Amino acid sequence: MQQGTLMRKVKSKSWKKQRYFKLQDDCMTIWYQSKRTGKTESAFSISDVETVREGHQSEVLQSLADEFPPEHCFTIVFYGRRGNLDLIAGSAEEAQCWVQGLRQLIEPRSFPLTSALVSRTWIRDWFQKADKNKDGRMNFKEVQRLLKMMNVDMNEDHALRLFQAADKSESGTLEGEEFVLFYKALTQREEVLSLFQDFSEDGKKLTLLELVDFLRQEQLEDEGTEELAMELIDKYEPSETARARHALSADGFLMYLCSPEGSIFNPRHRALWQDMSQPLCHYFISSSHNTYLIEDQIRGQSSIEGYIRALKRGCRCLEVDCWDGPNGEPMVYHGHTFTSKIPFREVVSTLGKYAFKVGHPSPVRGLGNSKSHGEDGYPKVPTSPSPTPQELKHKILLKGKKIGRLEDMLDGPGDDAPDVSDDDNAAEAEEERRRVKVRGTQHSSALQKDKENLAQALSDCVIYCKSVSFRGFQEARSHSRPSEISSFAEAKARKLIRDAGNEFVRHNAWQLTRIYPSGMRTDSSNYSPQEMWNVGCQIVALNFQTAGMEMDLCDGLFSQNGRCGYVLKPPFMRDEETLFNPSDPGSWEGPGPITLTIQVISGQQLPKVANTKDGAVIDPLVRVEIHGVPADQARQETKYIENNGFNPRWDETLQFQLHVPELALIRFVVEDYDKTSRNDFVGQFTLAFTNIKPGYRHIHLLSKDGTSIPPSSLFVHIRITE
Questions:
Q1: In the 8-state DSSP scheme, what is residue 436?
Q2: Domain count, the chain
Q3: pTM > 0.90
Q4: Whether residue 334 lies in the annotated active site
Q5: Acidic residues: which segments have biased composition (predicted)?
Q6: What region does 203 belong to: left with phi over 0, alpha with psi -120 to 50, or beta?
Q7: Catalytic residue chosen out of the listed positions 56, 269, 289, 700
């Protein structure tokens, strides 16, 4: 990669500043400085970069399309809520040099954390951070600084002993292999070594049979265990000699436990594993609210980034609020507010690029898709009124008002009198007056003043998701159709859950329901989606731009099944005659409660809390939360460990009883204990109970924004009993 490249940093059509960009010698940091002043403006780590996009793939670069060719332009996209960096190189060759170079530097992070990777990347990274005078050596003072940086408050005498043991040359400094020895002594996993020795007769290796015993007894692997043991040895044993003897060393054992096969998340459930041939109403569907907003609801920025981020997160239901703009061009924004605006055509173009890039090509709810239409202008659709995700692959469905019925559409155009649906309910009617909830180009006033003026062409695009008002479960049962959908504000949904929980579950077994946040949430905060999922609501719309527990639950539920955005509901929620009521699990003849036992053993390299003082070390604790039906809601936490974020050891056991485990989500949260104020967030990981692998498992923590923070993890032991 070129170093010291002069490029334009762009923030708007009028703000274009020339900056020198340079990759540091550590190949982990990029800084840039002003051409005019020579002053370094900022720097960022390669680990902060999620992806690099080529060409005019941001609003800013699209606005400059006439001025700069796409082959000169690229966008650096960061994890979390940090803004993108739009750059314009002096030539196509320079742009490609940076794009390809950045992609090569980003790529290794997708591999599992192994000892080899630790040696190659993390040890080098820590050495360079601690080597203050950059002489390639590290004295004891620099070692002490390193320990603080690594979140360790170690006794000075113990640190000195580690230092002297690694200083084989007795030079008073560490270099090369000496630092590697020091690092490995520091990162020794006693709890893993003890477990290894419990199953190893000689304490040095696990034979094939000993590994099989461990997999069966502790990991509860009961199918093809010998084949699995051979695969693990071939994949994770670093010694060729041990591999030839079908044995696993202590290093290989640790590498296995840190791998996807050793994760708490069942690796088989990462891929598409559920039946995708059920009716749409039998799935929970990842859904966003006001997708175009990336900030608050009143003055926030509207951006195509909202759509890109949501789609890359597996979202399958998007909102496009369309209003008349200058010269008749439709614009997307939050009507009657001060949010910024984006052209409707840019939104459509973005959906075309990103709708089916992540996971299974399952259908997206939002805008009509030309691919689903025949030569006569009428949709090529399955004849069933309840199509499946499998049948609707690569389709984009429009939810909105409609003239006539689906049955008429399937028979071809007819001359029946218009049958235009009314407002969904009183709460949504107010929202309709403020903002049309149709994902299309209709005018905001057309449906309000004269509903019979609804354009036939737009109406024809509405299939399977016709908006209808809700007038009670009995009325819906008698007169509604599976192709229709009703929407409820969160307060209305909660009232229905309290008053008629079982009827709500039955309703959702045959018809789609959408829930959206209260209009009072102008700060883009979220409600808990769990209570809506408990009654089978499929489209539970959240503000994806707002990090927190609610989005952790959403990400946790939809991280399975190939991240396709569809999760099959349990069988008792797909039965139209079910007796299940989440408020009274005893009324349902389920299999009975189960006991979930979690031993929280240790943590590894937990990150420091942002904006803490230099030298500060966290006091971590672990909280385990159960989110499910009301009877299952629970939380327990460990004690806190003083001044050790590097390798804290808890060895505490937490136990929970679950009455409806099929609906439960388990959230692991690490916090920095503070006796005088609220604890600070350190990391979390959330998953559905049905995706848990029992046994000794690692939990790889995520940040507040849902991004990985390697190599931070928890080590736990999971048991599930009836």
A1: -
A2: 4
A3: no
A4: yes
A5: 409-430
A6: left
A7: 289
